[in-house]
Design brief:
mainly alpha; Na+/H+ antiporter like fold; 5 domains; 4-stranded antiparallel β-sheet; 33 helices; 5% strand
Amino acid sequence: MDIVLITTIVATLFVVIGVAEPLAARLRMPYSALLAVIGILVSVTAIFFMRTDLTDALNPVAEVILGFPIRSNVFLYVFLPTLLFQATLGMNLRRMLDDWVPILVLAVVAVVVATLFVGYALSWATTLPLAACLLIGAIVSTTDPSAVVSIFRSISAPRRVARIIEGESLLNDAAAIALFGLFMGFVMLGVPDPTLADALAQFPLLIAGGVLVGWVVARIAIWVMAAFPQFELAQISISVALPYLVYIGAEQSIGASGVIAVVAAGLTLNLAGPGRLLPQAWINLRELWDVLAHWAGALIFILAAFLIPRFLADVRVHDFLLVGVVILAAITARAVILFVLMPILHKFRLSPKVERPYRTAILWGGLRGAVTLALALAVTESFRVPNDIQRVVGILATGFTLFTLLVQGTTLRRVIRWLGLEDLSPIDEALSRQVVAVALQTVREDVARTTENYELTHDIVRSEAKQFGDRLEEAVKLAEDNADILERDRVTLGLIALAGHERDTILDRVRDRTISARMAEQVLSDADRLIEGARSGGRSGYQRAARRSVSYGHGFRVAGFLHNRLSISAPLANMTADRFELLLSQRLVLRDLDAFIGGRIRRIHGRRLADLLAELLSRRIETVETALEGLRLQYPGYAEELERRFIRRTALRLEEREYTAMREDGLIGSEVFTKLMGQTATRRAAAEGRPRLDVAFQRIELVRQFPLFVDLDEAALKRLARALQTRYANAGDVIMRRDTPARSVFFIASGAAEMETAGQSWRLGRGEMFGQMAILTNKARRTEVRAIAPSTLLVLDEMRFRRLLGRSPAIQEAVRASASRRGIPFSDLE
């Protein structure tokens, strides 16, 4: 085959890719559908020129197109790892974890349900063996929701809905290909009617093996990349090799799922990469993968579309009926998931509410594409699959794909318009007016500075300023005097604006490296939760998201268990250090928001709303300060080390800025500038390292600071520190319930709790204890204790507490004082 001609065709394909995207936007149709149409037209045109007698001049080109080396292995080993790996790198995993239940339902359960629906429907309509029917079901069950996601973004659909569909697009390919490999094995082995037990028996190796290979190889790659932080191109090169190594390694070495291995490797790099690589290197790595995935996605659609005329060459009338069966079964299966299972999940608070119009759009937007055609091609290429099964698989997969692309894809925009999803809600309309007012105010300030710098003619400036001022006044008036929204919606608008500015502030702090790359994703995720909480729940939703940003998660409880029961301290130390840095970052950002409230919010929404937002912000700052102070008390000295690190990094940033300014002013040349920046980069790399937190040592220091333990000697303090267990509680968590057996005594290391008994309540703070009275009176607890702030508690079991009481006068005095407050004679206590 002529290499020059092949190179020309490949270059032409890239031209087509470049032209197709703006053309698809102009035609208002999905990009993937347009690429498929182009591929089909190219293939049909090549066939036409090969069979016509009109001209022979284009026959060489047609021969190259029809003989282009398109094999299933090219799709599965070259394009698919690229698409999956980039999807995992582009995900906000922390936000995805908020919606892991609906994502898994759409990505895994929906694939299994679609496979079963299509498989059994075909088994009733044809004489094919059940294994072959289920194989077809697995092939057509994977969706390409990129079209509906892009449309949802353009119409300002709820972010959580778009994120759920994005999560589905990542995982459903893995689930469908895993099922495909399973049933393909049954078909090639001649197992006509596999049982569910047969299928499930193969899954542990496919899934667990793929996860293990992906995680191990990714950790090795991250370790190698972190070893040379200054060589950015070398790091990016290793990242390019990673998905292909894990895919081939999983498939060829242990027979596991290469797709699962690629997903696991991408997720591992996504989680660990920002903390191990320099911020700019991580940004450049992701940008390169965005480009690679764009090319791979476009090429796989065009090349797969070349195959469609080949698949349909043998079509018969009866096949159209079977295609109709596949269409009905697949749509019915997806409708069951969206309209039956998703509302059930929402009822049990396992999923956000997805309005019916959006569910309808998701149903109609479940397009199939290149992956379906690639899997069908793999079947038709296998000599171990009977010819009649090859023919049916090719025709049904192609027919169903054409229906989704040419019918659903071309009408998706009209369906969304018919559902009314393109119309802005009153609050979104008000928000758009607010955005215009804020933007125009910023433009006015910038234009004023620009005109001063250029010393323009005063009359011209005044004339233009008057016109612009009139427009700004009108925009502000529209933002203030919107009669279509309620007062609570005005609060919601203010909170959305405040949370949006908080996110912008975080991005500024990340760019100037005041906030580390390790924390960037988490604080941005918290800001996104604030925006979504305000949009969906107003003030209460915003406050819930704010409380969550400083609360102890389930991971802390698991880490505490590992530390207390198994003496594994690393997870607790890392999570505590992350919490320190997160709280310091939040405090830094929150203190920058006062000016925004006093400026733009006050000008647009008035003094009353600005005062309300200022009060909410003040409460958030107080909560962060309380949580930070609790950690300072719990881990003396560590917060000081982190703050020193923050000062060093800030000083380095300012030093780099000064060198850049000197170079721009011509005070230093490029050689001196390069040397100075290199020295600064070395010092910055050292400053990026976070000080180590020794949890065990800090526990002893914490116990030593308790007034209750002041009379214990050093040996007793160490024994007590080993015996105490750590428990974390969020605000509102019940720590001790009424009418439960008394087995432990609690000491408050940080935070605060409220105790309620016999209709009375009082608050306890750091250094105080509770739970001792029920133990000493040998009665069930009559007191309920609830945390009123994120709190860290030290827990001591009954036997050790009694021994401690016997040798500590300070504990005895504390128990006596507690008994006196409740009217219990000390002599009654054992």
